[in-house]
Amino acid sequence: MMDSLPLLLDGLLNTVSLAVLALLVSAVAGHVALSMRLSPLMALRALSRVYVSLMRGTPALVQLFVLFFSLPLIGAGGHPILAAVLAIGLNSGAYVSEILRANLLVVSQGQREAALALGMGSVRTWRRIIGPQVWRACLPAFVNEFTIVLKTTPLASVVGVTELAYAGQMVSARTFRQEEVLAVVALCYLLIILPIIVFTRRLEARLHTGDTPLIAGSR
Description:
With 219 residues, this protein is mainly alpha-helical. Helix content is 76%, strand content 0%.
């Protein structure tokens, strides 16, 4: 196990990097899809619905293969981690969009009308009034979505990314010590997730999230 630690640590770093980058893609895609869904233009609303339905209705593994074999067509081939980040992030972004859209109900219509009366634009209204309330209400669901994204990262191994689970398989095949290796891999995942859960619970208590009605959770 000591000889195999460098490989496991490398897989752990790849997993963390993949999860963080995928979460950034997820956040951007989710907010863009929500903006399109709320747009007065029918074409944008339809495009947002198609994106959400496609991401939620097809397996993430299929989406990963489609992106992996499509990226060379635009000159971005040979980067399996890019395909994995985009596939996992875009898949998660559809769920983030729906979480945000459902929790928009925590902001009353009166607050929106007051912002309009004060001459605040849509971006400023979202940044100053709507966004903080919606993000606070979505916090538990966002943490749940992060754990799902983290546990989805092993899919990257099918396109050649040596993440934590795949590194554990390589060590198991070499040492024939499956129980010990899998225990270490599971412990690594817990060491990533548990501190974030503890931090989020403290943040929820500080922000008094319990006083805000939570409209929707994650998948």
